[in-house]
């Protein structure tokens, strides 16, 4: 059996020997300046907010796009474009958890600058490497902004909901029924390495995007596309029962689902790379929770509840018994210290998406809460590599010497999640669950965004859709956004 190349975004680029040496020396230096662990009291909201603030400061220290002569929205090498989108998504969520507006302006600036000429996150300078998974992370950032009530962009700019809809509209046209019966390819352009790969994060990302748009807008067509993607994945080797048997969208849901990384069109998607990553589970967990919350029939809620439960059971693999079955670990690379520059960020997404699942499907909270709580405590212990610097092995009591954007994002996400909690009566309290257009969300949508023809007939999006209505240019937009923004003034189960 051929094991296809693991499909974490942009994994194919290798670091230069000089960069590897520099990172090794940096890690050695960090070990020599280790300080005490981050102070975090999981029963004190102020402590959680202060710890999150410290980690957020460390995260943003890697970013220079808001500086004169730099390009807004881009992280320096070796980080890829997609991870910048993920970082700004995490900063939107940081604001939601803590109310701290420190990074709102640079977040808005970055999310608007990188939209591309058609406001669909297809900037020309990313075509040499942009995949469907890369694009969807920027859409996730915009949807988080819409759902969480993040300040809207200036009226003359594309709005958060419309930007996410544009990404959906560009991706739905890439549905590839000609190979493997459907799904999305990893790469958008035929000339890029990986075009023959259909991976879980691209397809699961589309599934989550469709599910979130369905819930936010109330448009059932988005939900139908989420169902269609789930059914395709369930019929593929990307999603298997724990005993190795296939599971189909029309059949019963097994008690446990194993989610694998990707499959190749050259073999008609008959086999899968069996590596398991936290973000693959996370994107499906969140999407299933959104579909559960969106469903208005008992049967549909029962179906999505079963699917969500099976995914959470499968995610047990990331909470090894060696660490008490409570602390999250990226098991495919952490133990052997083989994680690349992308993979340390993956736990950020599973952390956030488990947290939102507990909000949208409260019956899952009792299982999710202890794991996020223990993981947050472990992450705080790893945030002891000097000023604001976090490592990645949360199960290890002493700092492990690693550092980077991914490590900071993961620690920030899991620590921030502790701001979601149940009150004594068992009801969710602040921060509020993700908004919809019917429950206070006020982001302007555009059902035809990204289609280029002013209409959405080809996508089946009806009129009931809710709508209201390089460096040379960098400093110009910086000034414009700054001026525009001047006028815009888990959680813990006890």
Keywords:
globular, disordered C terminus, 5 strands, 494 residues
Q: Mind explaining what this structure looks like?
A:
The protein is mainly α and 494 residues long. It is built from 14 helices and 5 strands. The protein has helices spanning 17-32, 45-60, 81-98, 104-113, 132-148, 160-172, 200-217, 220-234, 278-294, 298-314, 346-360, 365-382, 405-416, 474-486; strands spanning 197-199, 239-241, 257-259, 262-264, 272-273. It has a 3-stranded antiparallel beta sheet. A hairpin with a 7-residue loop joins β4 and β5. α7 (200-217) packs parallel to α9 (278-294) and α11 packs antiparallel against α12. The longest helix is centred in the first third of the chain and has 18 residues, at 81-98. The radius of gyration is 21 Å and the shape is globular. Mean pLDDT is 86; it is low at 1-34, 453-460 and 462-494.
Please sum up the structure shown:
This protein is mainly alpha-helical and 494 residues long.
> What's the number of extended β-strand segments?
5
Arithmetic mean pLDDT = 86
Q: Helix/strand-derived class?
A: mainly alpha
Number of helices: 14
Please tell me how large the radius of gyration is. 21 Å
Helix-strand pattern = HHHHHHEHHEEEEHHHHHH
Termini Cα gap: 48 Å
Sheet of most strands: 3 strands, antiparallel
Low-confidence stretches: 1-34, 453-460, 462-494
Share of helix among residues? 40-55%
Taken from the alpha-carbon principal axes, the silhouette is globular
Order of strands, main sheet, comes to 1-4-5
Strand content: under 5%
């Amino acid at each position: 059996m051929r094991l296809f190349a693991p499909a974490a975004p942009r994994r194919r680029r290798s670091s230069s020997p000089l960069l590897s040496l520099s990172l090794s020396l940096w890690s050695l230096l960090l070990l020599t300046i280790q300080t005490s662990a981050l102070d975090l009291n999981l029963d004190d909201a102020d402590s959680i907010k202060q710890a999150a603030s410290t980690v957020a400061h460390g995260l943003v220290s890697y970013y220079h796009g808001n500086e004169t002569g730099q390009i807004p929205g881009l992280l320096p090498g070796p980080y890829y474009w997609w991870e910048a989108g993920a970082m700004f998504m995490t900063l939107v969520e940081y604001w939601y958890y803590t109310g701290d507006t420190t990074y709102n302006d640079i977040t808005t600036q970055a999310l608007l600058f990188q939209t591309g000429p058609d406001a669909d996150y297809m900037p020309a300078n990313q075509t040499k490497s942009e995949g469907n998974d890369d694009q969807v992370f920027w859409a996730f950032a915009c949807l988080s902004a819409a759902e969480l009530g993040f300040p809207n962009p200036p009226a003359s700019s594309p709005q958060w909901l419309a930007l996410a809809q544009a990404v959906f509209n560009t991706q739905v046209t890439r549905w590839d029924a000609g190979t493997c019966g459907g799904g999305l390819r990893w790469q958008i352009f035929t000339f890029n390495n990986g075009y023959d790969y259909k991976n879980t994060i691209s397809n699961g990302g589309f599934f989550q995007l469709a599910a979130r748009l369905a819930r936010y807008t109330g448009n059932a067509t988005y939900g139908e596309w989420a169902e269609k993607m789930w059914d395709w994945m369930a019929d593929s080797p990307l999603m298997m029962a724990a005993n190795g048997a296939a599971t189909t969208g029309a059949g019963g849901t097994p008690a446990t689902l194993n989610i694998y990384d990707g499959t190749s069109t050259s073999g008609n998607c008959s086999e899968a790379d069996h590596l398991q990553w936290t973000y693959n589970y996370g994107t499906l967990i969140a999407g299933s929770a959104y579909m559960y919350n969106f469903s208005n029939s008992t049967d549909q809620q029962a179906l999505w509840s079963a699917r969500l439960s099976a995914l959470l059971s499968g995610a047990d693999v990331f909470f090894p018994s060696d660490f008490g079955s409570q602390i999250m670990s990226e098991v495919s690379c952490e133990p052997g210290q083989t994680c690349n520059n992308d993979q340390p960020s993956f736990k950020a997404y599973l952390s956030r998406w488990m947290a939102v699942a507990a909000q949208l499907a409260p019956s899952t909270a009792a299982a999710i809460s202890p794991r996020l709580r223990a993981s947050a405590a472990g992450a705080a212990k790893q945030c002891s590599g000097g000023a604001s610097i976090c490592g990645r092995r949360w199960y290890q009591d002493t700092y492990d010497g690693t550092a980077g954007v991914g490590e900071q994002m993961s620690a920030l996400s899991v620590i921030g999640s502790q701001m979601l909690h149940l009150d004594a009566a068992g009801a969710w309290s602040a921060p509020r669950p993700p908004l919809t257009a019917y429950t206070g969300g006020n982001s302007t949508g555009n059902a035809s965004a990204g289609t280029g023809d002013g209409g959405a007939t080809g996508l089946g999006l009806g009129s009931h859709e809710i709508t209201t209505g390089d460096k040379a240019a960098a400093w110009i937009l910086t000034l414009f956004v700054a001026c525009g923004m001047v006028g815009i003034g888990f959680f813990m189960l006890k």
